[in-house]
């Protein structure tokens, strides 16, 4: 589970490693909230195209695009549930930095921070259950803000 830059990934919760982030409901409708869902079997609404759009290294900025609906992972608002939206790629709410946080056991763990002031990806209330909301929350770098990146095809 290593993030190697642009590619297709399943983004897995560090705290609840049986779950990944998912455009909820399996639909192709934009505006779907993003929640935790079992990573097996891996479905298209849990696959994300990570596309480099600016910079390099720790300052690289990415779009994270849902393969089922084509929407950008969006930091909808500070302390709000993230969603999949169509917006201009220049909008900072759809731009993310992905930073290596630590090595845990044999895996690399990352934080995913919005370029906007809307914070970082966060499993609400440190939840690990199916249906836990994935928020854009103030940056705190707790266990519920850490993610694994599994290459997917």
TrEMBL record:
It comes from the Eukaryota. InterPro entries: Ricin_B-like_lectins, Ricin_B_lectin. Pfam families: RicinB_lectin_2 (PF14200). Transmembrane segments: none annotated. SUPFAM superfamilies: Ricin B-like lectins (SSF50370). Residues 45-114 form the Ricin B lectin domain. Gene3D superfamilies: 2.80.10.50. This is Putative agglutinin ssa-like protein.
């Amino acid at each position: 589970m290593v993030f190697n830059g642009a590619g297709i990934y399943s983004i897995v919760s560090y705290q609840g490693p049986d779950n990944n982030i998912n455009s909820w409901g399996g639909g192709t409708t934009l505006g779907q909230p993003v929640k935790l869902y079992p990573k097996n079997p891996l479905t298209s609404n849990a696959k994300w195209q990570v596309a480099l759009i600016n910079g390099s290294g720790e300052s690289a900025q990415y779009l994270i695009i849902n393969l089922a609906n084509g929407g950008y992972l969006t930091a909808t608002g500070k302390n709000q549930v993230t969603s999949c939206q169509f917006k201009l790629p220049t909008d900072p709410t759809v731009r993310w930095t992905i930073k290596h946080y630590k090595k845990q056991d044999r895996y690399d763990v990352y934080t995913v921070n919005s370029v906007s002031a809307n914070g970082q990806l966060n499993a609400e209330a440190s939840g690990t259950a199916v249906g836990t909301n994935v928020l854009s929350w103030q940056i705190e770098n707790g266990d519920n803000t850490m993610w694994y990146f599994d290459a997917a095809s």
